[in-house]
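Progress report, Aim 2. The chain analyzed during this reporting quarter is listed below.
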Amino acid sequence: MSHALQDQRPVRGRKSAAPTSLTRGGLPRWAPAAIAAVSLALGTGIGAVAGLDSKMQWGLIAAALFVVITYTASTIVENARQAKDRVATSVVWVCFVLAVVPLFSLIWVTIVRGIKVLDAYFLSHSMAGVAGIEPGGGVYHALLGTIEQVLLATVIAAPIGLLTAVYLVEYGRGALARAVTFFVDVMTGIPSIVAGLFILTTWTLMLEQGPSGFAGSLALSILMMPVVVRSTEEMLKLVPNELREASLALGVPKWRTILKVVLPTAIGGIATGVMLAVARITGETAPIMLLVFGSQLINGNPFEGAQSSLPLYIWEQYKVGSADSFDRAWAAALVLIAFVMILNLVARGIARWKAPKTGR
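Predicted structure tokens for the chain:
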């Protein structure tokens, strides 16, 4: 007993262990916010004193100061390794802010400028009988053309892209699969004007077909297909092989395994990829100018006669150059953004509805 008590007594003259890099203090949770506020104040002050007129320059100075101050404070209070970690985190946050600020700025300006003339009349009337420099008119004919052209392009490109991705992931081996992958990669970077020229040469000149919304849809489907293939291919690769093996072990044919197991598992990512492709082609103008020509009248038949579209309508109104035409262009841009957002929400709803259920 006495030996135990003696062992528990503190030994005189023994020094406590020196603080190491793992036992030093750390910055409080509010430190990043405080450093951001200080950096913003310093960046604003430096920009004002230096006579910089651009607020973007002030923000870049503040971002650089945020990284430097974070590294210095973390080095003093914590340790060098933690300081490097905080610097990496700070750089990620700075890049995120630099990417988000222009996006929100664009959306804000579009809403402020486009809400002036955006009403039920604007959405339900065309530009028939309205001069470009005059007020009035609407976007109905362009909205109808965009919906029909994008829908036709999706009907053409989505099944072809989906089946191509299934072939590359589930069946593709050898030289043919490598060739298909190569050409899909090449098609991803094709400019929209090239796709328009190809359809103009084959559909309009060789087959002697006139301008129509369907011709524009053919060019848009060329731009959409590689995006669908690439996104669907990556989603199918994420499906665990154990699911395929379990289905095949039960004697299920491979085609049925793909249809009932693989595709439902990846439906969320596939729908997202299709919507990304739709968002890309919705804003294309060059193929529409070459193949659809544009029209101020309402044409509900995409297979005959010239049509309009929202991107082409925006360009036409901007080209007029009057205050009223600028307002119509901003309003059409707001309608275009809302159209893409609605499509994304619908796709996410369908993906969640069709996704395999987990739990009880």
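The mean pLDDT is 85. The longest helix spans residues 80-114. These observations will guide the mutagenesis work planned for the next reporting period.
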